[in-house]
Amino acid sequence: MPDGGLAEDFPHVTNDVDAAVRAGEMRPVIVVGIENTERRRDMTGPTEVEEDRQIAPRVGGSAAFRGFIREELKPEVDRRFRGSGETAIVGESLAGLFVLETLFKEPGLFNIYIALSPSLWWNAQALLRGARERLSALAGTTATLYFATAGDDDDEGAGEALAQVLRTNAPAVLAWSYEPRKDLKHSTIYRGASPAVFRRLFPPVGKPAATADATGPAQPGSSTKG
Predict the structure, then answer these.
(1) Is pLDDT above 60 for 220?
(2) What pLDDT was estimated at residue 126?
(3) What angle do CA 50, 52, 55 make, to 5 degrees?
């Protein structure tokens, strides 16, 4: 998990996961937190929008950050810990943008992708505009995607627009789910949404995973309404 420092989202996520595993609501997982150094550099791809460039001294480093995860972090985790081989990534805001970009550009890096309030506005919605073409690269990769938007951060409807592209263009190997969480804010969606999402995507051993909201189960390749 990017934003995985002790002063970031790591403590509340690990506390919740620990409680869920102990209660038999989730299968055991290893949570790997990545503490930020230059968050806005590492979570963003290049941009042609001058206003985007003003958010930090350096932006556009997502490819290098992804290379660090692929070449250094994942091999080190594999060396230190015994896992099942299943991997996942979760991020919110710019980290949610990084999650989606990783799915589109390197779909085999993880099995499960969780993007909460992804910053789809970056580079004039370039990721959304190129989504249809990028989905074709997923044809041979089995993956699961969950993404959600909050009630105060998607005025331009980018979340629903991405869901529509997925409805018409997602390959059958991609199981995906979208929840517009109008009951949550950008500042609260991580803590508000992740407990239920983790329990659905990482159910106890022997129980199939489901991506669903309070209204019922969602089928792979569909969207859900919150």
Answers:
(1) no
(2) 96
(3) 120
Q: Would you state the pLDDT for residue 216?
A: 28
pLDDT in tens, 63-90: 999 999 999 999 999 999 998 999 999 9
* Distance in angstroms (rounded) separating the CA atoms of residues 100 and 138: 12
| DSSP calls for 6-30 | TTTTHHHHHHHHHHHHHTTSS----
Q: Classify residue 41 by its DSSP letter.
A: H
The torsion defined by the Cα of 156, 54, 106 and 6, in degrees rounded to 10, comes to -100
CB 99 within 8 A of CB 115: yes
DSSP E strands: which ranges in the chain?
88-92, 112-116, 143-150, 174-181, 211-213, 216-218
Is pLDDT of 224 > 90?
Answer: no
Q: Which residue reads 């990534």 in tokens? A: 89
Q: 122-129 vs 94-105: helix axis angle to the nearest 10?
A: 30
CATH class of 10-218: alpha beta
- pLDDT band with cut points at 50, 70 and 90 for residue 210: low
Nearest-angstrom CA–CA distance, 172 and 136:
11
